[in-house]
Amino acid sequence: MQGVDVSSFQGAPTSWAKNAGAIQWAAVKITELQPPGSAPVRYTNPDAAADWAYLKRHGLVRVAYLFGHPSVNAAATVSFFAEQLDALGVEDGDAVALDHEVTDGLRPAAVSAWAVSVLGDLRKTFGRTPLIYTFLSFATEGNCAGLGSYPLWMADPSSAAGHPRVPAPWRTWALHQYATSGNIDRDVSSYATPAAMRAALGKGTPVPKKTRKDPEMILVQVDRAGVPAGTAWPGVFLLASDGSLHHVTGPEDHVDNVESYRAAGIPGPATISWNEYQARLGTGAAAAPSSASPAS
Fold it and tell me: What's the pLDDT tens digit per position in 180-191?
């Protein structure tokens, strides 16, 4: 099924509807809670109300999306979106989505953890499984780890309509943004009918079963007192449930990323011994620390 996605760039429906042509669904940008220092910080699409009402009048499937910033609190991001969308009116057949395409300078583990939190809050708030919009290189850089259970809205203009490349952790796609023409983004849905799309993405949709357990993550740091003389303290790491360590920040870094990871909902840092650190580097599959204590 053909669709489009619109924001204030396209203006009100009087500006884009004719150009959109014969569509059966459309996605509308609702909000963007921007990082401190941006102006405006709380952005609402000024044409969202007109777009949302137009889609209802014409019986089109509606998708409401928020543009996400991983440096902004996940709960606040969803709360602002919900406040604005509730004011417009949400029906059982409407879908919601996260536009996930910027890192705000954070590392992939923090970006993906933030998205996990946002999508979980969206599902809880609206009682339906949210879509996630992203693009190929953003996903392959690791910014979408743990998101494979959510339906994928893939931006891939290099592929023919309905044949997007599907990056890990996904195996299939739901929506495909395949082109921009006539000042509007063109999309196609994998669902055969509007009713099927509403049933799959609307209220009451079951939570997809995960084929594997998503890694649980915690920040860890090496006990400074146990570092051998003449050896530099290695810093803070992200510890996954498979035992692998991923460097977050160290004494040589100019930016301390720990608070960004905490803001994304990742606990820690916990303290591990020098020997455990060395063992993890050697095996990459040790069990989670059994006696880690919160760092002071």
Answer: 988 899 999 999
Q: Residue 210 domain-assigned?
A: no
State pLDDT tens for residues 48-68: 999 999 999 999 999 999 999
| Residue where a domain terminates, one of 147, 173, 201 | 201
Q: What is the largest CA-CA distance in the chain?
A: 73
- pLDDT per position as a tens digit, 116-144: 999 999 999 999 999 999 999 999 999 99
The more confidently predicted of residues 92 and 239 is 92
Asked if 128 and 96 touch (Cβ cutoff 8 Å), the reply is yes
Given a cut of 60, whether residue 287 has pLDDT beyond it is no
Per DSSP bridges, beta strands 131-135 and 95-99 are parallel
Provide the token pair at 29: 């940008």
Domain check: are 92 and 148 in the same one?
A: yes
Percent of the chain whose predicted confidence (pLDDT) is above 70? 83
Where in the sequence is the domain holding 255, given as residue range(s)?
217-294
Rounded to an integer, the average pLDDT of 266-270 is: 79
In terms of domains, do 40 and 141 share one? yes
Domain contains 224: yes
CA contacts within 13 A on the Cβ side of 7: 12
The CATH number that applies at residue 23 is 3.20.20.80
- Nearest CA-CA partner of 167 in 100, 237, 217, 222: 100
